Amino acid sequence: MAHDRILIVEDEESIIELLSYNLSRNGYQVSAVSSGEEALKSIHKSPPDLVLLDLMLPGLDGLDVCKAVRNDSRTALIPIIILTARGEESDIVVGLELGADDYITKPFSPRVVLARIKSLLRRSHSGGSSDAEVMSFPELVIDVVRREVYVQDKAVGLTFTEFSILAMMASRPGRVFTRNQIIDAIRGGNYPVTDRSVDVQIVGLRKKLGPCGTYIETIRAVGYRFKEVG
Q: 134-226 maps to which CATH number?
C-alpha cells in the first residue's frame, strides 16, 4: 500500500498542499488537479488507486466527475472519497448514491483522511466485499449460507430483511450506505417503501443484536455503516 497512487481533485491550493504533504509522508504517490475536466483526463490517462474528490470545482463539479468515473467500465472500480465543505447532507447523499465510497467534511483532520484512505484501500485490494460464507467479529458471527446470526455464542432470530441489511453492511465494514442504497440492495429499486422504513428496520436489528448493536453506526441525515474492527 505504500506505493498506492492518490489523485487529489481540489481547487484550493492550501488544501492540496496540506493533503499532499501528509500523504507523501505516509508513502503515497500523490498528484493533483484543480478542475473536473482535468480530473477525468488524468484518471483516464493513468488511473489512480484512489481519488480524493472535492464537490465544488470550477466547470465540471465533483458529482459529475463521480458519475462519469462510475459509468466508465475502465474506471468504475476506483475508490472515491468525497471532500466537501457543503453543509447540505443532500449533496453527500447524492454523491454516495452516484457511487462514492465515503465522504469527509471540511475542515478535516489529516489523520482522519489518512485513516479513511487506508481503510478504503485495504478493502479495495482485498476485492471489496467479502464473499466469505461466515463473517466473524468480536462477539458476533454471521453465517451467510445458513442465514444465522450468533451474539456471544447465542443464536439471534432475525427477519429476512433484518438479516439482509446486516449481511450487506457487514460485508463492507466502514462503507457508508444511504437509506436508498439499502432499499435497492435488499429489495430492488422499485420496492415501494420510504427511506424511514429502513430506520425502523435498523432500530429492530440493533435491539436484537443487543451488545453488538453498536456495530451499526448512524451517519447523521445520510444513512448507516457497519463499524470497522481493528
A: 1.10.10.10
